[in-house]
Design goal:
This protein is of the alpha+beta class. 16% of the residues lie in helices and 19% in strands. The protein contains three helices and five strands.
Length: 110
């Protein structure tokens, strides 16, 4: 089973066995990792924003236009930002490292 590494807001690292075919957001929720996911993966918010390690970024499928539009609303956007609901784990992503941003912007609440 591939490994997924979360870098928490405090800088600590959490390594998790990540089942293939499941989104990074869902894996986070199943393992008590603090990713918001206000729209529950419907691609209607940016609260599940993560920063992908630059060495891993090229291994991901290209972001869709809809994902890029949502990312524009994310707090602390970087060149390797993605929505965790749109990253689906596979064997090819073994060792994927994502960093949780220090804050999120929830348009439903803000």
């Amino acid at each position: 089973m591939p490994k997924l590494i979360f870098v928490q807001k405090d800088g600590s690292r959490t390594e998790i066995d990540a089942p293939c075919g499941v989104s990074v957001m869902e894996i986070a929720h199943q393992n008590d990792v603090e990713i918001e996911g206000a729209c529950e993966g419907a691609l209607a918010c940016s609260t599940c924003h993560v920063v992908v390690d630059p060495e891993d970024y090229e291994r991901l499928a290209e972001a869709t236009e809809d994902e890029e539009d949502m990312l524009d609303l994310a707090f602390g956007l970087t060149h390797t930002s993605r929505l965790s609901c749109q990253i689906v784990m596979s064997e090819e992503l073994d060792g994927l490292t994502v960093t949780l941003p220090t804050a999120t912007r929830n348009m439903m609440v803000d």
